[in-house]
Design brief:
single chain; alpha/beta; seven-stranded mixed beta sheet; 11 helices
Length: 254
């Protein structure tokens, strides 16, 4: 069974100037971090969806990681998803869709998700969906048809809109029930939106060697991350993030 992955770099709301800072970082860059995780899980075909002009710059940092670049003209989340799924749905039986802002998932999670035969599958930690989705080939093709129709009917989508809904709400709009697997690694919920955040959280994960051996409840999870919150700025705390980048109130499983 051939497995593919779409990495969304366009449509996720990271400004061009911040993307440039990601490119200047020492290895592994955020792009390489995600690509290596997919490759270690046996994902054969990886496509990065980028805005015009970014593909060449990112490729220079990857040191022959053998990925495909798909450019779109606008910063539309819907168009980015459509571009990636359309490219992979002809050849891959299972397709992952991941957001570049969430690079800290572990390869073993991908292996677990590959084994499930659900049409649309998400990973859940502590009752909350991460931004990592796995679709079947048939599901991907059907979603592409519906996205094409939506984009044709909405000039706003075609011109560029960042996703405003939670991950579960976005995928449920296509008429599928999202099956889910419970995982034991909070990395799927850790978000980065700047090069500084990526560097800080990469160091935290390296130091703590988070492997997902201990299953933590949502209540315990909030207590666990409070020690990180104590060192964050007032603006970080008011926005709902702790120092580890975990949004404590996001994507609650219904």
């Amino acid at each position: 069974m051939k497995i593919g992955a779409v990495i969304l770099v366009a449509g996720v709301g990271i400004p061009d100037e911040e993307m440039e800072k990601f490119l200047e970082m020492k290895r592994p860059t955020i792009f390489e971090q995600m690509i290596v995780s997919y490759q270690r899980a046996g994902v054969a075909d990886i496509a990065l969806v980028t805005r015009d002009g970014m593909a060449d710059k990112i490729e220079q940092t990857l040191h022959r990681r053998w990925v495909t670049f798909l450019d779109i003209e606008s910063d539309s989340f819907e168009l980015a998803v459509l571009k990636g799924l359309s490219y992979l749905s002809d050849t891959c039986e299972r397709i992952f869709v991941g957001d570049i802002r969430f690079p800290f998932f572990q390869p073993d999670i991908l292996v677990m998700m590959q084994k499930r035969q659900a049409e649309l599958l998400g990973a859940v930690y502590g009752g909350m969906f991460g931004d990592l989705i796995c679709t079947s080939q048939a599901c991907a093709r059907n979603i592409c048809k519906k996205l094409e129709q939506q984009i044709e009917e909405s000039a706003e989508m075609a011109e560029g809109t960042v996703r405003s809904t939670g991950v579960a709400a976005f995928w449920k709009q296509f008429g599928y029930r999202i099956a889910h697997i419970e995982i034991e690694n909070e990395g799927i919920l850790v978000q980065v939106t700047s090069a500084r955040e990526y560097e800080e959280r990469r160091q935290i994960f390296a130091e703590k060697q988070i492997r997902g051996h201990v299953k933590v409840s949502l209540a315990v999870n909030r207590s666990f991350f409070w020690t990180w919150c104590c060192n964050t700025s007032d603006s970080d705390r008011s926005s709902g993030f702790c120092a580890g980048g975990l949004r404590k109130d996001r994507y609650v499983l219904q």
